[in-house]
């Protein structure tokens, strides 16, 4: 039988592996979700109140440029609001950057275990992704620079990185940028910047404000507003102009704009969230350091635990699930078959996870 005549996707689209989100428990179950790096303290109460206020005005279109949100970000971070673009999550902005600066015949460079969305958006734009090996699960600046060719148009860098939790120091990020041609766009994805405690880390803000080929991308998803889908980007005028030309005219809804603005200004809640994460990230890392488990040092709101074998990782996933904890398997998405990614949750959740995994370590 002949194939039916019907619309067909552009070449290469059906070859793209879809994004695999973290698993959730069954509806109504008592499982604790530690698979998606969500806030263990919920959202800012001020953000919740602002979202409810916005929800009372659902009949009106939102202001198209997200002005109230851009102005809040500008005030708190010391940024010109005109250099900010907001999006329906940071994924929205990453897609727009790929669509704008990549095309057929181009290449984008990323580290091997970088965010799994980068290959999707690169290939969707018709370009090729170039995967660069890492050094002990950390991006290697020299290797990234060595992978650049005349076809390179974008370098994707998640800092800190997901799913490893590792990061590049400010000096290393600057060294990476200095080694790139001026026509190559460096995208510094700081999705987890709010949780970093390392003294030698810097967000990509200064680079984005002082160079013509750097943008910094951030998100509110890790700050308790994952369901609201809010992202933001800072870049030079010519990039901001290009992205604004193709983004959706009302791409951030009104309740989200208002919630994001309130969350930005609620510095007390954000500091509380950071302190909780640092305490229990460091505690869990120390507790799980054992003969058959290795915790990769993390600067994010999760830890990546490596086991001796893929079979041990699978057994650990099952044991945690049986105990009511859903964590992230990272073999299918990232090729780290012997690893699990565990979000930092409540004190009770962290103690429960440690008890399960330490019990396994002692019996195997």
From TrEMBL:
A Pfam family reported for this protein in Swiss-Prot or TrEMBL: Aminotran_1_2
Keyword tags: Amino-acid biosynthesis, Aminotransferase, Histidine biosynthesis, Pyridoxal phosphate, Transferase
Bias type Pro residues, positions: 1-10
This protein's record includes keyword Transferase: yes
Top-level division of the source organism's lineage: Bacteria
Molecular function (Gene Ontology), one example: pyridoxal phosphate binding
Enzyme category, top tier: transferase
N6-(pyridoxal phosphate)lysine, modified sites: 222
Domain (Aminotransferase class I/classII large) ranges: 31-355
Protein EC: 2.6.1.9
Gene3D superfamilies, alphabetized: Aspartate Aminotransferase, domain 1, Type I PLP-dependent aspartate aminotransferase-like (Major domain)
UniProt pathway annotation: Amino-acid biosynthesis; L-histidine biosynthesis; L-histidine from 5-phospho-alpha-D-ribose 1-diphosphate: step 7/9
An individual GO BP term: L-histidine biosynthetic process
Reaction catalysed by this enzyme: L-histidinol phosphate + 2-oxoglutarate = 3-(imidazol-4-yl)-2-oxopropyl phosphate + L-glutamate
Cofactor(s) demanded: pyridoxal 5'-phosphate
Region (Disordered): 1-20
Subunit annotation: Homodimer.
PANTHER family, per database record: HISTIDINOL-PHOSPHATE AMINOTRANSFERASE, HISTIDINOL-PHOSPHATE AMINOTRANSFERASE 2
Family statement drawn from the similarity comment of this UniProt entry: Belongs to the class-II pyridoxal-phosphate-dependent aminotransferase family. Histidinol-phosphate aminotransferase subfamily.
Listed name of the protein: Histidinol-phosphate aminotransferase
């Amino acid at each position: 039988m002949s194939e039916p005549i019907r619309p067909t996707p552009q070449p290469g689209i059906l070859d793209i592996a879809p994004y695999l989100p973290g698993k959730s428990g069954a509806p109504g179950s008592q499982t604790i979700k530690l698979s998606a790096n969500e806030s263990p303290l919920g959202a800012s109460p001020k953000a919740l109140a602002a979202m409810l206020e916005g929800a009372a005005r659902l009949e009106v279109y939102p202001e198209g440029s997200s002005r109230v949100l851009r102005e809040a970000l500008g005030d708190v971070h010391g940024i010109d609001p005109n250099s900010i673009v907001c999006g329906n999550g940071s994924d929205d902005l990453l897609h727009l950057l790929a669509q704008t600066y990549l095309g057929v015949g181009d290449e984008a460079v990323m580290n091997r275990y970088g965010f799994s969305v980068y290959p999707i958006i690169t290939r969707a734009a018709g370009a090729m992704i170039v995967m660069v090996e890492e050094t002990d699960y950390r991006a290697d600046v020299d290797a990234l620079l060595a992978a650049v060719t005349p076809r390179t148009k974008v370098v994707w860098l998640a800092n800190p990185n997901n799913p490893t939790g590792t990061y590049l120091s400010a000096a290393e990020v600057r060294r990476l940028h200095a080694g790139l041609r001026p026509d190559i766009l460096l995208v510094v994805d700081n999705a987890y910047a709010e949780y970093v405690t390392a003294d030698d880390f810097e967000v990509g803000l200064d680079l984005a404000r002082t160079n013509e080929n750097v943008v910094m991308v951030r998100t509110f998803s890790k700050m308790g507003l994952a369901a609201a889908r809010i992202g933001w980007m800072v870049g030079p005028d010519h990039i901001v102009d290009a992205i604004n030309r193709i983004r959706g005219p009302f791409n951030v809804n009104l309740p989200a704009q208002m919630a994001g603005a309130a969350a930005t200004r609620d510095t007390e809640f954000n500091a509380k969230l950071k302190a909780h994460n640092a305490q229990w990230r460091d505690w869990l890392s120390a507790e799980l350091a054992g003969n058959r488990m290795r915790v990769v040092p993390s600067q994010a709101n999760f830890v990546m635990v490596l086991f001796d074998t893929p079979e041990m990782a699978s057994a650990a996933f099952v044991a945690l699930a049986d105990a009511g904890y859903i964590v992230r398997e990272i073999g299918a998405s990232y090729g780290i078959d012997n690893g699990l990614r565990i979000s930092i949750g409540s004190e009770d959740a962290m103690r429960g996870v440690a008890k399960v995994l330490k019990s396994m370590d002692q019996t195997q």
